[in-house]
Write a structure and sequence with these properties.
By secondary structure, the chain is of the alpha/beta class. It has a single domain, classed as Glutaredoxin. It is 36% helix and 22% strand. It contains 4 helices and 6 strands. Strands 1, 2, 3, 4, 5 and 6 form a 6-stranded mixed sheet that branches. Strand 2, helix 2 and strand 3 form a beta-alpha-beta unit. It is globular.
Length: 112
């Protein structure tokens, strides 16, 4: 994982995501998930390209079931977007998507 992506846990989720000054993209994943491994490099690229306007985090849902349960994660990969301490639910994406779709969501999240 690059320095651009922050690994969060149940214990650090609130401070890293909910209290972040910047909007946040959170990659909900697990090591055994093939599509998750496909999405990971894309999220790394987006983290670098959107540095300064977006914080990018990953959380392993197998090891951090509290956060996964709180947000009703039943399929992975799930990319959740947060702004001002709350999930922007209409931007949630489940399953692997093209990079351009993630970027569109990031643009909506970070505009204005």
């Amino acid at each position: 994982m690059s320095e651009a992506v922050v690994e969060v846990t149940d214990g650090t989720f609130e401070s890293e995501v909910l209290k972040s000054e910047l909007p946040v993209a959170v990659d909900m994943w697990a090591p055994w998930c093939g599509p998750c491994r496909m999405v990971s490099p894309t999220m790394e690229e987006l983290a670098g390209e959107n540095s300064g306007k977006l914080k990018t985090c990953k959380i392993n849902v197998d090891d951090n079931q509290e956060v996964a349960a709180r947000y009703g994660i039943s399929a992975i990969p799930s990319i959740l977007f947060f702004k001002d301490g709350a999930e922007v639910q209409n931007l949630r994406m489940i399953g692997a998507r093209p990079k351009s779709e993630y970027q569109k969501a990031i643009d909506k999240l970070t505009e204005g």
